[in-house]
Amino acid sequence: MSLRSFISKLLFLMSGIFAFAVSPAFAQTTAPVVAAPDLENMLVLDLSTGGRVTIQMFPAVAPAHVERIKTLTRQGFYNGVIFHRVIDGFMAQTGDPEGTGQGGSELPDLKAEFNDTPHLRGTVSMARTNEPDTANSQFFICFQPRFSLDKKYTVFGRVTSGMQFVDAIERGEPPVNPSTVAQASIASDNVAPPAFAAPVAAVAPEAAITLDQLSGT
């Protein structure tokens, strides 16, 4: 075989390899693009336990509850409110300015928006009385999965960062030295954390939880 013939065959083989590398079938093996966090619907809690917690809210399944949380947060309602009911292995509840579990805001109670989103670790759900349409301002964050609550309480979000600061909340009903929400804000408002709060890295796109991810689809 002549040198010219050998070079021609080599170039032909290389062109085939290049075509395969850029083919649609090969391109499909790359990782899918994940949506960025929805900052307008992200609740930020600066806790007295020392750091910042971010909660991605789900307006698609609980629009009225998400809007209520955003309204009260922007009014400064949650600033300084204690975690008045904290059960180890279950959840931490806050949102009552009286600190007794009996109080709420002056806004009317909400109609339930029960949905298929499960109560997993980090799930944020609205507290209520024995009647379904009585959620107002109080909410709780799950330490561990509690599927018995599914479709009985309105899930409106889930922790995307800072769960270690939730884990550090003082236990008790009520706690002897209760932990507090030092400051609550909406991420799009870009409110600076208190001086004591440990800095938290920016939420990466892969931390943006979607309802499809929660349902496993």
What is this structure's SSE topology?
Blueprint: H1 3-21, H2 24-27, E1 42-47, E2 52-57, H3 63-74, E3 81-87, E4 91-94, E5 123-126, E6 139-142, E7 155-161, H4 163-167, E8 180-186, H5 211-215
Antiparallel strand pairs: 1-2, 1-8, 2-7, 3-4, 3-8, 4-6, 5-6, 5-7
The CATH topology name of the largest domain reads Cyclophilin
Judged by helices, strands and strand pairing, the structural class is: alpha+beta
**Helix-strand pattern:** HHEEHEEEEEHEH
Give the biggest sheet: 8 strands, antiparallel, barrel
Percent in strands: 15-25%
Question: What would CATH call the architecture of the largest domain?
Answer: Beta Barrel
CATH superfamily caption of the largest domain: Cyclophilin-like
Share of helix among residues?
10-25%
Number of helices: 5
Assign an overall shape: globular
How would you write the strand order of the largest sheet?
1-2-7-5-6-4-3-8
Compute the number of strand runs: 8
Radius of gyration: 24 Å
Overall average pLDDT: 86
Stretches where pLDDT is under 50 for at least 5 consecutive residues are 20-27, 201-207
CATH class of the largest domain: Mainly Beta
Quote the distance from N terminus to C terminus.
57 Å
Q: Domains counted in the coordinates: how many?
A: 2
